[in-house]
Amino acid sequence: MIQNITDGENWLTGEKTVESPVQLIWAAGLMALAIALSAWQRLGMEWNLALATGRTILQLLVVGYVLAAVFEFKNPVLVLVWIAVMTAVATIVARNRISQKIPNLIPLVAGSILTGTLLTLLYTNVLVFQPPTWYEPQYVIPLAGIVLGNAMNAAAIAGERLVSTLNSSRLEIETHLSLGATPQQTVTNYRRDAIKAGLIPTINTMMVVGLVTLPGIMTGQLLSGVPPIVATSYQMVIMFMLAFATLVTTLLVTSGICRLHFNQAAQLTLW
């Protein structure tokens, strides 16, 4: 079992922290500089940058206070509600990226993302982290957020790729169907390519992790005083979790999309 994160020296009380309003104001100065540069170069991005800055501050402040309450009470209902909210948001974002015309796509995307996430969390909670309780907020909420975010992106990329390919390959698909091929046989290559596309970001990140960039969770731990070897151990687990979750999610979402594109008579239906 990986060393408990709370055993790391200065995990919550490290010397290098960003807590005072003055520090945050100085940090926000970077966005002020970005807005000034945009205005100087006449990019027309000033409003977007300002809006993004405001939303970042507001959303993270709200999330911070809500999570503080969840962590304090350690109530399984609150943990499950939080995960449900994150799943709902991830589902809507992924569905909008894939298509807003395909019926029954929301339950398909939600089920795919949630299945990939829950299987991953179940495995790591039982065999890796082994928290005192299955709903331990310290583990479940951060890990669920990381996995859900990546599963959402993978589902959106794979789903959008598959729908686009099916819509542009109507003649080829119908030709194969007329020659006796089953719907599954006609879309096998398209589905495989879509799954690969959904996994590319995760695989690329795994290929260069620690060499080109330090992932966010590892950087946060290092800044808070966690020993580097502990931080890298946790990052390894995170990367393995993301690879498994994104693969399961893309497998499920592409399989469902293929089914939605054929009727009971095995005829192609485009949306």
State the main characteristics:
single chain, 271 residues, mainly alpha, 75% helix
Could you provide a short overview of the structure?
With 271 residues, the chain is mainly alpha-helical.
Explain what the structure shows.
It is a single chain. With 271 residues, the protein is mostly helical. The chain is globular, with a radius of gyration of 22 Å. It has helices at residues 21-40, 46-73, 76-98, 105-129, 137-168, 170-178, 183-208, 216-223, 228-260. It has a domain at 74-260.
What is the structural class? Answer: mainly alpha
Characterize the main sheet.
none
Helix and strand succession? HHHHHHHHH
- Quaternary form: single chain
**Molecular shape:** globular
Strand percentage, roughly? Answer: under 5%
N→C terminal distance: 48 Å
Write the layout of secondary structure elements.
Layout: H1 21-40, H2 46-73, H3 76-98, H4 105-129, H5 137-168, H6 170-178, H7 183-208, H8 216-223, H9 228-260
Helix pairs in contact: 1-2, 3-4, 3-5, 4-5, 4-9, 5-7, 5-9, 7-9, 8-9
